[in-house]
Amino acid sequence: MARRFRQNLGLILGFAAGALILLVLLLPGEETLHARGPMNSGHDDIACEHCHLPAPGTLRQQLQANVRHLLGMRATVADFGLLQAGNGECLACHDFPEERHPVFRFFEPRFQKARDALHPEACVSCHLEHRGVRVTLDGIDYCRHCHEDTKLKNDPLDVSHASLIKAEKWDSCLGCHDFHGNHLMTVHEQLRDAIPPAQILAYFRGGASPYSREKRFAARREPLR
Question: What gap in Å lies between CA 37 and CA 35, rounded to an integer?
Answer without folding.
Answer: 6
